[in-house]
Recover the amino acids of this structure.
């Protein structure tokens, strides 16, 4: 079934021009928002709790814009199954990669952290050729082995290496000849089994996973933040800012606070571009 879905539907769709894919996106947005609502209650509750000072009409407007963006993200992700390197370079640009060069010249690894904001899939496909470091992304392995393989192939066809979270400990112990930049997504909802840092995020008590900070401090790897910006439909840029040059000398939770606040600033500025369909506040703070 998975192979039929990929070879008969997804892969052929990926060869369609963007203007056709965006027509499909417009239709999907109508379906997901009005006809067969996709997690709309979750989205509305998340928005209402995150922006208690906004009016019902403002919340509704953000919600509608979010579904437009979500469906664009779906078709843009499908396009990545067949997109060329040339087209990736036209649609995704790292605006200030030169900020990374001094670290590379000194042979220093980096950690780049960000959230599921704007199109993180095009970042995965397009970043390797635009930065001096070799790039590696940590990800959670999909239960469907066929789509796990296709997702890794799509993200990694232009140089990115994919490493599962279960392999992360052995990966950081590896010796390598070229400086590496490891990509962390830091806005997943952590389970009760994981150590977390509690903070106020979008007006709510929020548990933040400590993976980024843990590896940065253990191996004293400098941390930068990657802010994905939407230039216009289908075109994105990445702005990089330095968060911490000496993680070992930071206090517990300091790095986590820094990257969480960066993400929060992006979301407050343009909330429609964050992934609101997840139940990110399932874990409650213990009294």
């Amino acid at each position: 079934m998975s192979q039929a879905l990929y070879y008969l539907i997804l892969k052929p769709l990926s060869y369609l021009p963007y203007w056709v894919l965006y027509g499909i996106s417009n239709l999907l947005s109508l379906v997901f928002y009005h006809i067969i609502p996709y997690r709309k209650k979750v989205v509305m509750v998340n928005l209402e709790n995150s922006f208690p000072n906004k009016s019902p009409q403002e919340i509704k407007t953000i919600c509608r814009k979010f579904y437009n963006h979500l469906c664009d993200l779906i078709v843009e992700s499908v396009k990545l199954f067949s997109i060329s390197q040339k087209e990736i370079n036209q649609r995704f640009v790292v605006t200030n990669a030169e900020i990374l060069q001094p670290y590379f010249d000194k042979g220093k690894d980096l950690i780049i952290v960000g959230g599921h904001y704007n199109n993180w899939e095009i970042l995965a496909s397009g970043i390797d050729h635009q930065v001096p470091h070799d790039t590696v992304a940590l990800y959670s392995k999909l239960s469907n082995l066929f789509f796990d393989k296709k997702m890794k192939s799509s993200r990694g066809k232009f140089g990115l290496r994919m490493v599962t979270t279960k392999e992360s400990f052995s990966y950081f112990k590896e010796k390598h000849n070229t400086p590496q930049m490891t990509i962390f997504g830091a806005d997943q909802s952590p389970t009760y089994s994981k150590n977390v840092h509690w903070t106020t995020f979008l007006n709510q008590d929020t548990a933040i996973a400590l993976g980024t900070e843990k590896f940065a401090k253990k191996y004293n790897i400098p941390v930068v933040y990657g802010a994905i910006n939407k230039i216009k439909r289908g075109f994105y840029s990445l702005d990089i800012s330095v968060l911490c040059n000496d993680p070992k000398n930071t206090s517990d939770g300091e790095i986590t606070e820094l990257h969480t606040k960066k993400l929060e600033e992006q979301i407050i500025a343009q909330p429609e571009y964050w992934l609101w369909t997840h139940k990110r506040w399932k874990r409650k703070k213990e009294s």
Summary: The beta strands are 92-94, 110-114, 134-139, 161-164, 180-185, 196-201, 204-209, 223-232, 235-244. The CA atoms of residues 35 and 69 lie 17 Å apart.
